[in-house]
Amino acid sequence: MKFDKICKYCISEIRKNSIGVAVVIFAVTTFLILFLIIKPYFFPHFLETKFETEEERGRYVLERLIR
What letter does residue 51 receive in the DSSP assignment? Predict the structure, then answer.
């Protein structure tokens, strides 16, 4: 119940303040750019690019965990 009231209060305060709205839009845009566009290029799925079968991937992961 408290969480609901806190969220409603924060949202109402952000809507009152035009700078707050701009900050929220900037933060959401930055998040989308980082995780939807940049992440796949800089952090590709390593196991899918290096190994063809599930067995090879499993052996590699097991070997890395045991070391």
Answer: -
CA 40 to each of CA 33, 43, 58, 62: distance values in angstroms, whole numbers, following the listed order: 11, 5, 22, 25
pLDDT tens track, the chain, 67 positions: 688 888 888 888 878 887 878 888 899 999 998 888 888 788 778 888 888 899 999 999 899 999 8
Burial of 57 (0-12, 13-18, 19+ CB in 10 A): middle
Instruction: Identify whether the C-beta of residue 52 lies closer than 8 Å to the C-beta of residue 61.
Output: no
Label residue 16 left, alpha or beta by phi (over 0 means left) and psi (-120 to 50 means alpha): alpha
Closest CA to 60 of 7, 14, 49: 49
